[in-house]
Amino acid sequence: MTINARIKAAGRAAKAGLILLAGLAANLGGSPVWAVPAGSPWGANYFPNVELVDQDGHTVRFYDDLIKDKVFAINFIYTRCTASCPIETAALRKVAKALGERMGRDIFFYTISIDGNRDNPQVLKEYASRFNTGPGWTFLTGRKEDVTRIREKLGMYREDGKPEKELGEHSIVILMGNERGGQWIKRSPFDNPEALARILDTRMLARRGTSGKSEVTAHAAAVMPASPGEELFQSQCANCHSLGADDNLGPGLAGVVQRRDRGWLKRWLKEPDRMIAGKDPTALALYDQYRQVPMPNLKLSDREIDTLIALMEQHP
After folding, report:
1. What is the rounded radius of gyration, in angstroms, for the C-alpha atoms of the chain?
2. At 305, phi and psi to the nearest 5?
């Protein structure tokens, strides 16, 4: 399955309200949030309290130090993934920006590496720096068996139980939870970021007795794109690029069709990883200029590439 198809599948799963905890599966009729019944065993005795190490080299315990009594979002990545993981991290970065000062104060993000043998604290710290993440967002690593156990308990491992042979086989959903309130929800990271922020900022915090007006005021409902090109751009590109002149994690795309040779641009959208590996001068310059955040290979079809270029032509 291509990354494009997997992103769409993640979106469909989120819209269908696929709820989790592994081992606690229940058909909730599409309800987006599930509250743990009073007196349920899914607390300290359910979640593994295994040791993890953060990007600063500090040892923490998964339950006691990360999720107990907290509101949080968790996702799993490989830092060497050049397909879904950079897009997912960029998407969560937008959610974190929407949450503003609540990050690190009331709400916490945890990105856990599946590749503990390679992703040591230094690698995680460099990865976080490339995406310019802020307070309240912790990157973690640990023993493979411990991370797998966490993923299984959170319902974020392959449902068929088979080993994950490729980087792209892991789940590209996020888990948002309120451990004290016993509320859990799985969503696609590619949902509208303001909508995801509102879920964390209001609904999840409600069980904590938090008072006061929400600091996130954007509408939760995503505005549907008006054209196939806009829809493709919003799902694949908007977390890193704007169609204007403003840079984000990547350059603003206003005028890019006029600045770049069309053949180069089409190849860049088709196989950016190969162009970087092949030391294409322009590709390397962009890679170095924008914090070495890799342009992911989205496995776009020629038709999708033409659709994106046609959209960019409308923004000279």
Report:
1. 20
2. -65, -45
Domain coordinates in residue numbering, the chain: 3-208, 228-313
Instruction: Give CA separation, 4 vs 234, 236, 242, 267, in Å.
Output: 12, 8, 19, 17
Class of domain 228-313: mainly alpha
190: nearest Cα among 85, 81, 115: 85
- Look up residue 186 and give its two tokens: 């799985």
Where helices occur in the chain by DSSP H, the ranges are 3-15, 84-99, 121-130, 144-154, 193-198, 228-236, 256-259, 262-270, 272-277, 281-289, 302-313
Contacts of 278 (CB under 8 A, 6+ apart): none
DSSP state of 37: P
107: closest CA among 37, 10, 15, 198?
Answer: 198
As a whole number of angstroms, the distance between CA 61 and CA 44 comes to: 12
> For 51-100, how does the pLDDT look when each residue is reduced to its tens digit (9 = 90+)?
999 999 999 999 999 999 899 999 999 998 877 888 889 989 999 999 99
pLDDT at 209: 37
**Edge-to-edge strands of the sheet including 107-113?**
34-35, 183-187, 174-178, 71-77, 107-113, 137-141, 51-54, 59-61
pLDDT given for residue 146 in this prediction: 95
Pick the closest to residue 236 from 64, 23, 75, 6 (CA basis). 6
Q: What is the CATH topology of the domain spanning 3-208?
A: Glutaredoxin (3.40.30)
Helices (H), 165-207: 193-198
Instruction: Determine the Cα–Cα distance for residues 69 and 67; give it in Å rounded to an integer.
Output: 6
- Exposure on the CB side of residue 85, measured as CA atoms within 13 A: 22
**Each residue of 149-193: pLDDT tens digit?**
999 888 888 655 555 555 455 667 889 888 887 778 888 888 888
